[in-house]
Amino acid sequence: MQIRKNTPNHKPVRKAVIPVAGLGTRLLPITKSVPKELLPVVDVPAIQVVVEECVNAGIEEVIFITGRGKGGIEDHFDFNFELEKILEDRGKFEELSRVRSISKLIRTIAIRQKRPLGLGHAVLCARDVIEDEPFMVVLPDDLIGSEPSVTKQLIEVYEKYGQGVVSLMPVPEEEVSRYGIVTGENWAPSLHRVRTIVEKPEPGISPSNLAVIGRYLLPSHIFEYLEELEPDESGEIQLTDGLSRLAKERALVGYEFTGRRHDIGDKLGFLTANISYALGREDLGPKVLAYLRKKVAEADGDG
Ligand code: G1P
After folding, report:
1. Residue 127 gets which letter from DSSP?
2. Atom of ligand 1 nearest to the CA of 211
3. Residues 190-241: pLDDT tens digits?
4. Can you give the residue range of the structural domain that contains 66?
5. Out of 58, 124, 181, 186, which could bridge 226 as a Cys pair, Cβ 3.0 to 4.6 Å?
6. 62 lies in a domain?
7. Whose CA is nearest to atom 6 of ligand 1?
8. To test the ligand 1 pocket, which listed residue (119, 121, 176, 241) has its Cβ within 8 A of the most ligand atoms?
9. What is the pTM of this model?
10. Assigned domain for 1 exists
11. Do residues 72 and 38 touch, judged by C-beta distance below 8 A?
12. Of 121, 178, 179, which is best to mutate to test ligand 1, by the most ligand atoms within 8 angstroms of its C-beta?
């Protein structure tokens, strides 16, 4: 199938699937009892940052694929009458309006992924809710600061070409084994026709250094492929294998997005995300910058 501009009318992208069942083992011990998605980016839970990205890109409904101990994520986007009453009684109207606005952000649906069968299986759990519409998959470990957001960038590419789109980022050779890595042809600036995707190849035998990052815009055909997949040797159904079939049998666009990505499922990425978001805040940015300058000067002095 050719990838052409202005393909026939396609349905709008209204839904986003956000898998949140992961255990967060890279961030233990905090993730023993706290869902990693509720860890803060300054004073906002990480999941709220990605949900706001969806809302600002025009998404109307998010589908959380949840697991054991993740109920707090749904609670965060629900009304909390007791808290609201107390804030109201105490005249804390600014806090009240902030808390209420989160509950009004977006319609949420939660689907339980009862067994840890991988990302492909998590996406497949949303099939009945998505029906035959194109949809976003947003991995909340990937926080990406950019204007417009990566979700918005992907929707714009989809509106132009009418095909599934995955976000891509070049990574250093020694990091390829952390990602799905694509091969394909670069046919326009930032745009690739994806041919294959290999999940977490070893450095040295990796087909390229272009990694898939956690924003995907997928047609509902992906479910047909995911449904037919067998688990890999780790017992997981890989989204990557479904995407490879989509690329082969239909078409898949790879889009090199602009923006700064933090992997907040990782200790260092969690810290850099917090520093970066704090620096961007009017109330905190100048103070955090002054602190960092002082620490750098001290470290240089020590050297
Ligand atoms: C998942 C995908 C991988 C992708 C990555 C992006 O891996 O399986 O293809 O490159 O997300 O963050 P995970 O990070 O869940 O191991």
Report:
1. H
2. 10
3. 999 999 999 999 988 888 999 999 999 999 999 999 999 999 988 999 999 9
4. 15-265
5. 124
6. yes
7. 213
8. 119
9. 0.94
10. no
11. yes
12. 179
